[in-house]
Amino acid sequence: MQGERKFFNEMLDEAGNPRPAYANLSRWLEDKPLNFLSRKSREAETIFRRLGITFAVYGADEATERLIPFDPIPRIISAAEWRKLSAGIDQRVRALNAFLHDIYHRQEIIKAGRIPADLIIQNDAFLPEMVGYSPARKVYSHIIGTDLVRVSENEFYVLEDNTRTPSGVSYMMENRETMMRMFPELFQAHRVAPVEQYPELLRQTLESVSPDQSRSDVTVCVLTPGIYNSAYFEHAFLADSMGVELVEGPDLFVDEGKVFMRTTREPKQVDVIYRRIDDAFLDPLTFNPDSMLGVPGLFDAYRAGNVTICNAPGTGIADDKAIYAYVPDIIEFYTGQKPILNNVPTWNCSREDDLAYVLDNLEDIVVKEVHGSGGYGMLIGPTATKRQIADFRKILTANPSNYIAQPTLSLSACPTHVASGVAPRHVDLRPFVLIGDQVRITPGGLTRVALKKGSLVVNSSQGGGTKDTWVLED
């Protein structure tokens, strides 16, 4: 069973001794009474509830607004480990942006035979409307969340690239603030790289891709679908932290090819829109005509070079799971280098041989929807029942091109507060990257933790929680 799989313990070595990065934390935990962490967990929950740090769960029978469970034991990454991770992330995001520019222009990677043409052209995430257009600084994906998993002391894998509208950065920041409030003595014992500068760096990044660099007063806004969106707290948090307006579609309008924001005085021209709505809903005149969330005429104003949309429309193809298997080729094609961070080995079920292998091994692998997210629409073979596997086999056979498959990784585990005390639980990591005039990588990111023993599902919508992530400085 899954709970019996061997995994890398990030805190303890094979002899049960604390690894160097965790030495101070281990001693600190040993000195604490049994009920200490339980009391601190309740304190953190009170803080989060007071601040309204919730997320929405669609289709749930119970209340749709939930608190994300917060674990008070930090996850620690050494300075040396972080240097390798940040170098690999930097390489990856630059290559993905080069890939996006290429596929919407000369399509050299297709001509070179490194990626099948139909995988691009027939992909739902590919926007023909973006062909031939170059955004400011040729940056398409300005905010990226790169999901990483660790399987051994020196081996990290990239699980997926979130190049559309990645979420979770507000939880990263609130986790850190809560930890600093509750455990100031722990921070005194560690040199922890800061994350609180993220909003300022985000604003600098957004301002750096303004279409008119001659303007000294750049107007930025955050475009949200509204209060019923699952990440609305984050939208409001980031707008407030950056000191910019949070707007919905009706708050903006287009006049003579430019975008304006309604104010209590007079309309104000908008230079950069950090959008948190999907491509299809951005502009009812260009995309989904039934959209009530977007701004009529926005895409024409964008194509005219009068406003920057971050992330650019059409960036979703760079994190499409069918494209994921080709990212090592993408990196090598555009950088001339081997990937610093490896992909998880992947079977593309649209290929006949791959599909045959997957169908023969459903009990041992993970199958995911190409466009799926949040832990939905997937099969984790080792923890599935025979009935679930049989039902999924029928779904997969009926529409194989909608799925990819990967081996079941033994995710690393970190010390986590559980009912019985402290125990290892599996984790992943989402560092946040900003790309504009330069690449800015926030040290650490959001660690998600599977709170159930043996579980590999870390998504908050599936019962997972979060941890503060500490990158130690030299």
Low-confidence stretches: none
In DSSP terms (H or I, runs of 4 or more residues), the helix count works out at: 14
Radius of gyration: 23 Å
Report how far apart the termini are: 40 Å
Q: How many discrete domains?
A: 2
Q: Which structural class do the helices and strands define?
A: alpha+beta
Helix proportion of residues, in percent?
25-40%
Query: What is the global morphology?
Result: globular
Main sheet record: 5 strands, mixed
Spatial order of the strands forming the largest sheet: 3-23-22-19-18
- Give the mean pLDDT: 92
Number of E-type strands: 23
Would you kindly provide a brief summary of this structure?
The chain is 30% helix and 22% strand. The protein has helices at 23-30, 36-51, 79-103, 108-111, 117-121, 169-182, 184-188, 198-208, 232-242, 298-303, 321-324, 327-335, 352-360, 386-398; strands at residues 54-56, 65-67, 70-77, 143-152, 155-162, 220-223, 245-247, 252-255, 258-261, 268-269, 272-275, 308-310, 342-343, 347-348, 365-369, 379-380, 403-407, 413-418, 421-430, 432-435, 439-441, 446-449, 465-471.
